[in-house]
Write a structure and sequence with these properties.
Structural class: alpha/beta
Number of helices: 16
Order of helices and strands: EHEHEHEHEHEHEHEHEHHHHHHHH
Strand content: 5-15%
Oligomer: single chain
Radius of gyration: 22 Å
Largest sheet: 9 strands, mixed
Amino acid sequence: MATIYYDKDADLSLIRAKKVAIVGYGSQGHAHAQNLADSGVTVKVGLPATSKSLAKAKAAGLEVAAVPEVAAWADVIMVLAPDTAQPALYENEIAPYLAPGRTLMFAHGFNIRYGTIAPRKDVDVSMIAPKGPGHRVRETFQTGSGVPALMAVHHDATGTARHVALSYACAIGAGRAGVLATTFAEETETDLFGEQAVLCGGVSALVKAAFETLTAAGYQPEVAYFECLHELKLIVDLMYRGGLSYMRYSVSDTAEYGDYVSGPRVIDPRVKETMRKVLDDIQNGGFAKRWIDENKGGRPWFETQRRTETDHSIEKVGAQLRTMMPFLDPVTLKPGE
């Protein structure tokens, strides 16, 4: 059984006694910084002077300074910049100012797992990885709940790395939902696999394939959108609350029968074989190497894919339909966002 910690297992005074630097103010950065501040932790945000997020951090009442300055000031440095930007950021703006006995933290194990960051042995290296996007980390915290998180310790120079990491996790609200002990390797490999096989890649491909199948057969794109994308949230919400059994309990018997009959036809043994290959690619470092090389080369393939996917007909149909449902709080991204 996994070891899971909760608020009752943590000493919040440990992180309150530390000066914490949040490097980056994107999806996770803004949530960590604001939640920590609301929990009584002394926080500074590290950003370059040209960052578009600087004004947002200051508007939230947070103190902002350059990354080297906060790295020299802090007892705990949480690195929340994009994975591919972290190695250079660490080498040039954090490592030279990282004193012995300090804590270096991450919210994803990518760079430790694949060796693109190799911290010194005289600092604690730990991870608190919320299992949800940053805006949910912030929203749930504000409503008194939280997003579960994974916790790992890569190096314990002080003998207190786990205790400090758990205290940090509870200060951002994760202890309300559960903090599961893991390793950097397990978090990285399962996170990448989940994103690629299910949460992002798998779901996106399944939705598009179903939409294209219906529209190619002559059905209205609007009907296909509602059936294959819009209703997905309703089904996932049922799973979220009570697992697959509650979803099947809540839908019609006809839908449940179709689940049993056709689910295995769509997700057949060949799909599992492909998933195994995806996992192998993650475990052997192939995916990481290609992604790192793609970024070093200016991301031409990635940017082309992003533009192509944005132009897919399901995106255009969906954008039009969502304007008629303002209660969804629809979001329309501008080109380049």
